[in-house]
Amino acid sequence: MNESMIEIIVSILVLIGVALALISAFGLIRLPDVYTRSHAATKSATLGVLVTIIGAFLFFGLSEGVYSVRLILGIVFVFLTAPVAGHLICRAAYRSGVSLAEESVQDDLEPILGSEEERRAHNKERHHRSS
Amino acid sequence: MFDLILLISLLLISFAILVALYRVYKGPSMPDRIIALDSIGINLIALIAVFSIYMRSTAYLEAILLLGILAFIGTIAFSKFIERGVAIERKHD
């Protein structure tokens, strides 16, 4: 494959990744509460970084013949860990009683885990006990 | 042309990191700040990947793996701290 073809493919992949990173940044600013912001921060940012790293992998593989194992490991690791981290943050946020946005219409966990004030008080007591 | 595209992408990713920093500063609750810090870590990985293409050097690729691991562990520790009050649990005897 000739040089300009590689450059075109890699720059398209990098630009897609950058566009996704920008979309996730705007979502981080514009969305109303933690739970919706975590959608923006975990999904599109993960896809963006995956596409960018795949672009780097193809660039080094096709132009210099170096198929880097470290990049493949990085892709797999980011792909596995980013959703887990997002889930854990949302769980911690709900259990410590961070309020939903005013526009929210439904909260199915509330009958199980108690109302916002109860969760907040419970969390404060747990912090107190463990310290 | 290729280098110009890479430079513009570096600028735009830096802009995304700045926007996430604004959320770290402003964030009304603690989990907001942690989500923003996590997305800063992920954007830094993309920044290093683009930078290593720009420099035509594979020397920066270890940093991608390290940053991924560190961002993940930091996020896990923070969310456990918020949920339980401790980052590392020990058995009380």
UniProtKB/TrEMBL annotation, chain B:
InterPro entries: MrpF/PhaF-like (IPR007208)
Transmembrane intervals: 6-25, 34-54, 60-82
Pfam families: MrpF_PhaF
Organism whose genome encodes this protein: Geomicrobium sediminis
Keyword Membrane set for record: yes
Protein family: Belongs to the CPA3 antiporters (TC 2.A.63) subunit F family.
Coiled coil: none
Location within or outside the cell: Cell membrane
Keyword set, alphabetical order: Antiport, Cell membrane, Ion transport, Membrane, Transmembrane, Transmembrane helix, Transport
Source superkingdom: Bacteria
Mode of membrane association: Multi-pass membrane protein
Full protein name: Multicomponent Na+:H+ antiporter subunit F
